[in-house]
């Protein structure tokens, strides 16, 4: 008789993160640290997606008993199109970073925006209400964070992007949700902001967006969506340019993961110990 007949332990739920590249993803580590907080046993792996093969990878994972997936570059748009049911915030974002299977359907959400908001308001303790925000970039990440940022009630949100047309398109799309306008980098001269968020991929290439040196108001926050073991190039520049608070996107990464963990497991993890643990590695 098989030993399995006497195995009454709860089934270990399986999760994965799909991306390309994927080997440096911190998501497995983050989700295991969350699971330990509730004595939950989960299996969270990584899946290297092939361009053009995203849907197949998800179907294969579901067929093998998978419960949910995180989705990272370059598949957030594929995940958006694959999901049968989208949350309102995923609809606004036009991109999906969290998938799960329920009732024969694939559900999709975008937790990047709430992740950023939770990091800025709860972890950093910075109130965005009434503040003038400059958002740099107009790619997938910026799309995902625009609606939650506008919901936080800034006095104005300005989007500046290297390709101006994309900033204009985004500003028009999100106009019904708050005071948002597009700008070129050049037109930022002589303008000051309480918050500057770098949502460009410039840091990944060791470059800086072309910002005027005097763009920070007193007590300003500079936030780089990118994260690294050392302060990023943008954080170093912002600190020299007078920003009081300079942060990278590690907190956002952990907070977006916490939201996905909650969706999948109905437990809300504490994020502070996980952020500290990742910083100490
Ligand atoms: N912390 C987190 O949890 C988290 C989550 C998501 C993303 N991120 C980070 O956010 C950043 C953006 O990701 P994404 O998915 O939005 O990328 P994306 O869709 O490829 O968009 C890249 C954006 O960066 C701009 N850009 C690229 N190189 C530039 C340069 N040298 N100078 C100025 N602008 C430049 C692009 O401008 P054009 O339109 O002109 O090409 C575009 O607006 C990445 O660093 C990523 O690691 C972090």
Rounded radius of gyration (Å): 20 Å
Named once each, the bound ligands are: NADP nicotinamide-adenine-dinucleotide phosphate
CATH level 4 superfamily of the largest domain: Leucine Dehydrogenase, chain A, domain 1
Major sheet: 6 strands, mixed
- Please report the first level of CATH classification, the CATH class of the largest domain: Alpha Beta
Report the sheet-strand fraction: 15-25%
Provide the CATH topology of the largest domain. Rossmann fold
Ends apart, CA distance between termini: 46 Å
Assign an overall shape.
globular
Q: In the CATH classification, which architecture of the largest domain applies?
A: 3-Layer(aba) Sandwich
For the biggest β-sheet, the strand order reads 2-1-3-5-6-4
The beta-strand count equals 12
Tally the helices: what do you get? Answer: 10
Approximately how much helix is present in the residues? 25-40%
Write down the domain tally. 2
